[in-house]
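Renewal narrative, Specific Aim 1. Our central claim is that a sequence can be written position by position from structural information alone. The example that follows is taken directly from our test logs and has not been curated for this report. It begins with the structure tokens describing the chain, in the order in which they were read.
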């Protein structure tokens, strides 16, 4: 891999790992390590530095399907954090060579080991060492380690519950289920399988560890999370991390040094088709496809006891609710028109608000044979904001501005939360109507949108926030009918934009079939 222009300790660290580490327990245990391009790229990004040598990333997340050796990567980094050149010291001079023979490029960052490192490896169950710590033990044990490591660092004191690092410092296995890490001065922490960190005490521990990493300025501690796709609605640490990464991508939160590296099978691969399953597995496993039995994994989908949702989660690394997905990502992508609704077009606005979750969405839909959907506004609680509420005045102003841009035939609202706004907007002369989200109203409206998307007879302009709300929605059917719900009542994954879209599409299609003037709008429902 050619060296990039950005500054990183990772180039030398990759060479250090390949020199001093062997593979952990498994089919290739004890064999020399040759990092594949994906893992090497992750290390380069994880150890990127600023021009003054300070770390760019304080929290790294790598999300891959089962069997991708994520825990082994965490073990390599755990050993490097214990012994290797992982913190900036100076920029290389021309001809500089490391103690183990790595040749630096002029100006490349040169690292030194952490002084008295404290490395924590968290497993999900009490009394379980965990895959990462087990691999570290194997790689550092004098009987199984790489010869170069034994020659350079000598015999390391390796135990079941603690590894003592030469010169001071420790590596210890920890239980995420009950450990309280308050008071620790951690320099590196591994949170393995964070999709399983669902209990409240696990989530509190995750936050405690993140805070502890800030205690030692020179040590510049950081955390690595490894995960396979979480089950939506369980509220796991991984789910919270994904939501945080989305908020950063959408400009709703600051970066705060997060390295988010996620890979899932693209929507074009239809899990129901054997050829697509195999092709999707090859894509999502990347370099690891060379040693995984992908055909056996693909065939396992046809086992009658296999859950389709769980198969996609574990092998395609896709977020899938066990309660039933509403719309497929492929169908949604095929409806992406990529253009906005033309100014002056006849539209219906759908306005949905959630009192308890502090989220409100305003969606415009064109009155056409091929309805066009546009997310006009979305107001959501920022991550970790406890005292934030929706600015209702801003929402009302967005409705007024939309009426100046397009010909608004109707503003459909559920009066449960929006009574005051409906009165204010109606007083301004806007055609406001009630759209109560009862089963009688939402069942046919939801069925209409479902059919339009699945037959690709609807268009949207590709807004990632709308796509997120649509993907969060679960289709639930019971004696009252069909309706959209969240995976769990208290799930932070919001669906207000999806609900507003359903309301607006339903009313826009009604206007397409009926010629109505403003004067009689209030009497049509």
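The sequence written for that structure reads:
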């Amino acid at each position: 891999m050619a060296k990039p222009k950005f500054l990183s300790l990772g180039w030398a660290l990759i060479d250090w790992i390949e020199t001093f580490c062997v593979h952990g327990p498994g089919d290739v245990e004890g064999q020399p390590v040759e990092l594949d391009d994906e893992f090497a790229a992750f290390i380069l990004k994880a150890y990127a530095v600023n021009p003054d040598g300070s770390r760019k990333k304080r929290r790294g997340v790598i999300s891959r399907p089962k069997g991708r050796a994520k825990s082994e990567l965490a073990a390599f980094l755990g050993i490097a954090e214990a012994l290797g050149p992982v913190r900036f010291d100076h920029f290389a001079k021309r001809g500089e060579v490391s103690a183990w023979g790595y040749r630096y490029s002029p100006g490349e960052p040169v690292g030194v080991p952490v002084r008295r490192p404290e490395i924590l490896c968290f497993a999900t169950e009490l009394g379980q060492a965990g895959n990462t710590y087990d691999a570290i033990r194997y790689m550092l044990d004098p009987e199984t380690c790489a010869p170069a490591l034994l020659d350079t660092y000598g015999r390391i004191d390796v135990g079941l519950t603690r590894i003592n690092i030469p010169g001071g410092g420790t590596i210890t296995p920890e239980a995420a289920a009950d450990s309280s890490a308050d008071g620790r001065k951690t320099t590196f922490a591994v949170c393995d399988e964070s999709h399983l960190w669902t209990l409240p005490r696990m989530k509190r521990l995750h936050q405690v560890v993140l805070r502890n990493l800030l205690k030692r300025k020179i040590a510049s501690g950081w955390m690595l999370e490894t995960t396979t796709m979480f089950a939506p609605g369980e509220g796991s640490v991984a789910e919270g991390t994904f939501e945080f990464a989305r908020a950063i991508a959408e400009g709703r939160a600051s970066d705060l040094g997060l390295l988010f590296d996620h890979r899932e099978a693209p929507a074009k691969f239809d899990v129901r088709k054997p050829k697509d399953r195999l092709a999707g597995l090859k894509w999502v496993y990347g370099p690891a496809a060379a040693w995984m039995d992908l055909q056996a994994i693909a065939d396992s989908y046809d086992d009658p006891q296999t859950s389709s949702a769980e198969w996609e989660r574990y092998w395609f690394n896709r977020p899938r609710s066990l309660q039933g997905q509403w719309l497929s990502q492929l169908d949604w992508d095929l409806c992406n028109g990529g253009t906005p609704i033309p100014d002056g077009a006849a539209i219906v606005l759908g306005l949905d608000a959630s009192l308890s979750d502090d989220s409100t969405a305003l969606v415009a839909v064109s009155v056409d044979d091929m309805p066009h959907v546009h997310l006009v506004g979305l107001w959501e609680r920022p991550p970790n904001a406890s005292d934030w509420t929706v600015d209702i005045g801003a929402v009302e102003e967005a409705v007024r501005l939309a009426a100046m841009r397009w010909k608004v035939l109707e503003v459909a609202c559920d009066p449960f939360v929006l009574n005051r706004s409906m009165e204010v907007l109606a007083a301004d002369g806007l055609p406001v109507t009630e759209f109560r989200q009862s089963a009688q109203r939402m069942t046919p409206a939801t069925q209409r949108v479902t059919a339009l998307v699945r037959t690709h007879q609807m268009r949207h302009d590709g807004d990632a926030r709308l796509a997120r709300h649509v993907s969060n929605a679960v289709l639930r059917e019971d004696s009252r009918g069909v309706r959209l719900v969240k995976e769990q009542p208290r799930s932070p994954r919001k669906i207000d934009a999806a609900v507003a879209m359903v309301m607006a599409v339903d009313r826009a299609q009604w206007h397409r079939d009926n010629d109505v003037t403003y004067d009689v709008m209030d009497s049509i429902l």
